[in-house]
């Protein structure tokens, strides 16, 4: 898969290619990351990338033509659907990430300042997504979140083929608690069931924990999905 990111701070976005799971995805050629800076498409001496809003008021907008040209260059490279990251977008969730990962290439536009001209959004943007109900100083971190969440779902990226399947949200539930050595930490012990080697009991315990945690912390997730009879029994017992 190829993801092109249009950003005034490409070196910030490039950091995802430098480490961890996303770095491995890029190194193995499973993810291609293209970076496009609107500043490279300016034509004035000052390489201006911002402009004043009609109607006045505080703050600046991204200058239309450099962003437009950068988007055209990015699309020419990967022909991806254009996603604009902004707090006004639909809120990203794992279902959306899964669809992105299974779909074609993407162009991510990271906004800066007060955002982009509405006509640019209409002409060039296919979808607008937010990573949460808070305001970042730019869309770069949001774009990096999208790249990271997608990369780990691409076939061959994660070491253990199962580990994406066992993630939080894959099944609409939060993840269960996990333990590693030592057996006791400051007097807190690993639950016996995890040491006893009964795999059916372990699976049952993990499912019950995932259900219980979701019920406690994110009841909205349970309301959004139907529980099987088995899950309902586990949650009730
Ligand atoms: N840009 C600024 N804030 C953002 C957010 N919450 N999500 C996506 N892009 C953003």
Bound molecules: adenine
Q: Helix proportion of residues, in percent?
A: 25-40%
The number of distinct β-strands equals 9
Strand adjacency order, main sheet: 2-1-6-5-7
CATH architecture of the largest domain: 3-Layer(aba) Sandwich
CATH fold descriptor of the largest domain: Alpha/beta knot
Number of domains: 2
CATH superfamily of the largest domain: SPOUT methyltransferase, trefoil knot domain
Stretches where pLDDT falls below 50 for ≥5 residues?
none
From the spread of the alpha carbons, the general shape counts as elongated
Please describe what this structure looks like.
There is one protein chain. This protein is of the alpha/beta class. It has two domains: 2-151, SPOUT methyltransferase, trefoil knot domain (Alpha/beta knot); 184-236, Orthogonal Bundle (Trp Operon Repressor, Chain A), CATH 1.10.1270.20. The protein is 37% helix and 16% strand. The strands form three sheets. It has a five-stranded parallel beta sheet with strand order 2-1-6-5-7, with helices on both faces. It has a two-stranded antiparallel ribbon with strand order 3-4. A two-stranded antiparallel sheet has the order 8-9. Helix 4 links the parallel strand 5 and strand 6. Helix 4 packs across helix 6 (140-151). The longest helix has 19 residues, at 199-217. The N and C termini lie far apart (45 Å). Bound molecules: adenine.
